[in-house]
């Protein structure tokens, strides 16, 4: 007769047990250099994962690799001393990966990994930047790793992310791309006069389908019809929560107006109630389509400028 069988359904428990198994059952097979190699390999595999399914496993494994935790696990380890490694080597390797990685989302998990290794140097550096920014907004330029650190700090802050203003950092497409996770977590994003082009609209369209954004101001950017077409793809998504969209003076013509009207018409669950298109190059047909939508009793669009 088989003994008791336990089933651990929650993903966090599964990830922890997997990390615990690797940290204990295999610890006697690794010397100092190979244990470090194992951790670096785990970092690489987590970064290669498209859905992030190794992120928690990696955090647990790095935490268990610390000497203080190895001591606590001494009853499970065959030779605890052999699983120790030079922590600083792993810390520096993770920092290199943060600098190399263009994805802010993937870098965020690496900052959690640094926390597991009790290293907060990049976060402390970006905290100093935040303090300087409060006195001189938009003056400093950050390196890619510190952009990621800034996102990590803001997303893990106790303060609620209500309004995001690009001018508090640096009005550019690069800055917007780096801080996109913060934009997604905010309810209002002010991106006017941001030196943005249509290229930014692809990321914004994706953000509209999975964010808290209720108000978005893109006025006085050279988005053009191509940018508005991309943005319209986000407005079509039934998960889009946007209620107010400001597109004043964005070089939009009749074609862009038509794309906006088509997007809103194709999404009966659209929440958009206010649309500002002042100072654009519209024609009669585009304005007519949007005006008809405004008059439609089934449409939420009530204010059209």
UniProtKB/TrEMBL annotation:
Residue ranges of the NACHT LRR and PYD domain?
A: 10-125
Q: Which organism is it from?
A: Astyanax mexicanus
Instruction: Provide the protein name.
Output: NACHT LRR and PYD domain-containing protein
Does the keyword Hydrolase belong to this entry?
no
A Pfam family annotated for this chain is LRR_6
SUPFAM superfamilies given for it?
RNI-like
- Keywords tagged on the record: Leucine-rich repeat, Repeat
Give the highest taxon in the source lineage. Eukaryota
Q: InterPro entries, from UniProt?
A: Leu-rich_rpt, LRR_dom_sf, NLR, NLRP_HD2
Classification via SMART domains: LRR_RI
Q: Which Gene3D superfamilies match?
A: Ribonuclease Inhibitor
């Amino acid at each position: 007769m088989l003994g008791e069988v336990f089933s651990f359904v929650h993903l966090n428990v599964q990830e922890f047990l997997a990390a615990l198994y690797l940290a204990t059952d295999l610890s006697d097979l690794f010397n100092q250099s190979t244990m470090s190699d194992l951790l670096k390999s785990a970092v690489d595999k987590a970064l290669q994962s498209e859905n992030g399914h190794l992120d928690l496993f990696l955090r647990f494994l790095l935490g268990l690799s610390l000497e203080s935790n190895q001591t606590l696990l001494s009853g499970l380890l065959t030779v605890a001393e052999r699983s120790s490694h030079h922590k600083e080597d792993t810390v520096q390797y993770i920092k290199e990966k943060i600098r190399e990685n263009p994805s802010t989302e993937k870098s965020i998990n690496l900052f959690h990994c640094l926390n597991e290794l009790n290293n907060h140097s990049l976060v402390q550096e970006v905290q100093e930047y935040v303090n300087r920014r409060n006195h001189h907004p938009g003056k400093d330029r950050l390196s890619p790793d510190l952009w990621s650190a800034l996102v990590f700090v803001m997303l893990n802050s106790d303060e609620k992310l209500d309004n995001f203003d690009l001018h508090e950092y640096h009005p550019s497409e690069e800055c917007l791309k780096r801080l996109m996770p913060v934009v997604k977590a905010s309810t209002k994003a002010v991106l006017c006069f941001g030196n943005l082009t249509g290229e930014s609209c692809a990321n914004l369209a994706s953000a509209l389908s999975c964010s808290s954004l209720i108000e978005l101001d893109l006025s006085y950017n050279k988005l053009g019809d191509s940018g508005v077409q991309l943005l319209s793809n986000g407005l079509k998504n039934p998960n889009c929560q946007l209620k107010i969209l400001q597109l004043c003076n964005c070089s939009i013509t009749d074609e862009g107006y038509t794309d906006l009207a088509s997007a809103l018409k194709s999404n009966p669950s659209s929440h958009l109630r206010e649309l500002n298109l002042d100072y654009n190059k519209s024609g009669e047909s585009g304005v007519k389509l949007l005006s008809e939508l405004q008059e439609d009793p089934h449409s939420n669009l009530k204010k059209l400028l």
